[in-house]
Amino acid sequence: MILEPSIDKLQTKIVSKYTLVTLAAKRARQIQDTKIHNVENPKAATFVGLALEEILEEKLIIDPDYVMPKE
Q: Is the overall model pTM greater than 0.85, yes or no?
């Protein structure tokens, strides 16, 4: 089984693997709840795959100015 899109391609969009996984997981939950995604011709059959395709197509990005609140 080959993961598509590949981690190498995804890391050209988001360098940190931790950030990539966290963002994809959160977005996958949103897609699962709403059944709405931003990929025109998806290849993925899973919600995580759809989230990764959104990241690759730059339809889902991270705001570099966003800072996590301190507790």
A: no
